[in-house]
Amino acid sequence: MSRNCLLLLSATAPQQRRAQPPAYQHVFFAGCIAGAVQAYFLAPVDLVKVRLQNQTEARAAGGGAPPRYRGPLHCTGAILREEGPLGLFRGAWALVLRDTPTSGLYFLTYQGLCRWLTPEGGDPGPATMLVAGGCAGTASWVTATPLDVVKSRMQMDGPERRAYRGLLDCVVRSVRRDGPGVFFRGLTLNSARAFPVNAVTFFSYEQLLRLLG
């Protein structure tokens, strides 16, 4: 998605600049568009994942109640019955606000580091791809974590327990109850996970592009 958006944006550049590497603003905006589009397709799956994870964590903490959901399909069906189709998109706005700028930053960081670490006119080597990909993943999660916390809290709202009236209300109530530091819970773990995962992701992506010509 990001690559197609980048090709479309680059096509609007003057003819003499099309042979050059894509402009950084095009890389950023292409990433933003890809992030916004993927967020709406990801929202239902992400909602089911968060609710299943939450019930698992609650039982591990000593909760005696049996699990409400028996699995992903049962969870999806329960949400549709109790909250309607729109219930699958609970927290989608927070997801869009999280993924739109962070996807732009993600691809911008990768492209910028690749160009900085690669001699002019050359192609980035494996080490460059791995380092740039890892740094891109870490940078994106540093900016994404606050809205990821808000998104997860909104997704846990159900028809019988509505804690927040909307995204802004969730932010305000979270700060009042837990302090500003709540928006950075899990940042260390997310960053530690993001570096190796995204290093391998970008390396594999680039190698497949070269293999496929």
What does this structure look like?
With 213 residues, the protein is mainly alpha-helical. Helix content is 71%, strand content 0%. The chain has seven helices and no strands. Helix 1 packs antiparallel against helix 2, helix 2 packs across helix 4 (92-117) and helix 5 (126-155) crosses helix 7.
Write the layout of secondary structure elements.
Elements: H1 2-10, H2 24-60, H3 72-83, H4 92-117, H5 126-155, H6 167-178, H7 187-212
Helix pairs in contact: 1-2, 2-4, 4-5, 5-6, 5-7
Describe the structure using short key phrases:
mainly alpha, 213 residues
At a glance:
This protein has 213 residues and is mainly α. It has helices at residues 2-10, 24-60, 72-83, 92-117, 126-155, 167-178, 187-212.
- Taking the alpha carbons of the first and last residues, their distance comes to 18 Å
| Strand content range | under 5%
The helix/strand class is mainly alpha
How many beta-strand runs? 0
Order of helices and strands: HHHHHHH
The residue ranges in which pLDDT falls below 50 over 5 or more consecutive positions are none
Structure annotation, total helices = 7
What oligomeric state best describes the polypeptide chains here?
Answer: single chain
Average the pLDDT over all residues and give the rounded result: 85
Taken from the alpha-carbon principal axes, the silhouette is elongated
Largest sheet: none
**Gyration radius, in Å:** 20 Å
Fraction in helix: over 70%
